[in-house]
Amino acid sequence: MFYLEDAKRLVADGVDVLAHSVRDQKVDADLIAAMKSHGTFYVPTLTVDESFYVFAEHPEMMDNAFFTQSVSPELLKVFHSPEYKAKCENDPNLAKNKAAHATAMQNLKILQDAGVKVAFGTDSGAFPARIPGWAEHRELEMMVESGLTPMQALVAATRTSASLIHAGDRGTLEPGKRADLIVLAANPLDDIRNTRQMVAIWHGGREIQPRVPAAKLSAAQ
User: Considering the domain 4-53+91-168, what is its CATH architecture?
Assistant: First the structure.
């Protein structure tokens, strides 16, 4: 998604989910009412627009083990290069991407407060700067920066997303469901970035050691 009018038409036609955010303008009461009436899910995918410029503008985000262990050394070298920084700064769509990102964050808060079903996605892997593993944690962080509580962001990424794909065997910690969970060294309700402070990962009941254990993360994360 990008345009509000497209979103309205698609919801009227009965789509189940809108993804990538309405970000040409502020969502309105008509769209909100239609989405609630149809039970349409919303996947904000905030990392999409930010990925076009964030590493060039904020290279400090890459200065920690959680990030460096998520990308190849070759890609890390590219992100730190003057050529990459210049390319991002001279992108003719830079202002548009930044405006779209800001509007997406605003609309997420509006839709969450209105009771629309917010789920979770990142578009990670579609482009090199949308980094699988890291992007998911960054998405949670930006959802909170948009005004959601840490609990609302976590529920979107777990229970609501499972409901969206009709996966009744996961999404919450309950007897009889898949043992898919992470064990953290710090409370994500205090700081959503604590989702990166992993002690252990459990997938389908099998324990997997995190590539970067919590003890090795810097204070800056």
Answer: Alpha-Beta Barrel (3.20)
